[in-house]
Amino acid sequence: MLFNSYAFIFVFLPITLILFFSLASLRLTRGSLAVLTLASLVFYAYWSWVYLPLLLISIVFNYLMGKRISKADRGSKLSQILLLVGIGVNLALLGYYKYAGFFISSINHFSHSNSPIPDIILPLGISFYTFTQTAYLVDTYRSEIQDSNYDLLTYSLFVTFFPHLIAGPILHHKDMIPQFQRLRNFVFSHENLMRGLTLFVLGLSKKLLIADNLSPWVAPIFDHSSHTTFSEAWVGTLSYAFQLYFDFSGYCDMAIGLGWMLNINLPANFNSPYKAISISDFWLRWHITLSNFLRDYLYIPLGANRLGEVRQYLNLMITMLLAGLWHGANWTFVVFGGLHGAYLCVDQWWRKQEISLPKWLAWSVTFVALLFSLVFFRAHTVGDAIALLQVMIGFKGIVLPFNPQGYFSVLTHFGVQLQEWSFFAYLPPPEEQSIGKLIGLLLVVTLLPNTLQIMEWVQPTWRWATVVGILSGFCFLSLNHVAEFLYFQF
């Protein structure tokens, strides 16, 4: 089920809220938790009930494994074996459903073999609930969990809580389970409902009114990567950067807003990443819960920066290569992760030189480097990405959308070609509007506050109600063109 659908907004969400708080008002808190858990399972099964048993088996297995690990002596051989078995089973499921076809096709390609590739449909959310439960097992092994306070119902809700289940954030037990046990969170709050609805509408507006409308400028460029012009390539890449930004941040806003409606605080997962002035700064702002997971459960256990400079760079590369592969079973994501690993290595080396750049220059270098990596993130193949980058760099000539007889004709003396907008075959008309809109979006993401910052100003006034009402109207008119969130595929 999609957040941006009539079924979710007008049927699923109202019924869930009414049942949850109705049972809570009767002090049937266990019933409220059961309703919320059942609603989350229905939310997941609405996409495809076939993979619901897989989710349930994963939950029961990890819950029982966590209990068994907690009963073993800390650091004992038994606890280590149990932890390895638990992590192994989780990664095996993820590896089969997400990477089996990728690995077999890669082996076929490099060995010129012809092994059959299984036709496997990727279960929604498997990356998120696998990482969430893996962290749970590791923390149980570290004795960071009071296991006696966790029952199967509460644990199941922690894993399946519908606002985060499909596309994150990656939840941590210490942040979430105490909230499901706090009695005051079962008391209906008009303020939380207002704040949650407002943030949900803001996130929905990002998705429907901005991100989805950028799609016509993205797909044609990446589908014809080797045949686009210089200007088209940059318009397509910038459009994808903003489409991903508003699509993912819109989902994060809606998830947090839904949590607020239920008196639950989900962790922030997005903090104006295009304002970053370094790649390290970017990963502190983009998909924050994934960055935290990779830091706490991969980078630090690998040794972080404690084993020397060379080992630190190696750990950064390993972490980011796996981060890239986590996003998808394609060599394009591996290259994306490798690029960011290299970026982080350069960033760490530069910091040690204690050389500072002007803020505008640091931002420019970071943003352009990010755009180059996003070409691999979106392209169908590594070859397509390289072809598009060659066009963007100017290896296939520079074509700008200006009148050849106009003020910019002097550029032709430097090898630049000038063509009217009608020359561009892969941008939908009116093509000239794309430049102005992209400049406007760039100013929005770099200069204006983000939605969570805006929420600090929201008050229950007629003015805010009018703004939210108008945005809601535009969104509801756009619901007839339902599009999945980009992060659903990850």
UniProtKB/TrEMBL annotation:
The chain crosses the membrane at residues 6-26, 33-61, 81-99, 120-138, 153-172, 316-340, 360-378, 385-402, 464-488. GO terms for biological process: alginic acid biosynthetic process. InterPro entries: Ac/AlaTfrase_AlgI/DltB (IPR024194), AlgI (IPR028362), MB_O-acyltransferase (IPR051085), MBOAT_fam (IPR004299). It is a multi-pass membrane protein. It is found in: Cell membrane. Its main location: membrane. The keyword Nucleotide-binding does not apply. Keywords: Acyltransferase, Cell membrane, Membrane, Transferase, Transmembrane, Transmembrane helix. GO terms for molecular function: acyltransferase activity. One of its GO terms (cellular component) is plasma membrane. Belongs to the membrane-bound acyltransferase family. This is MBOAT family protein.
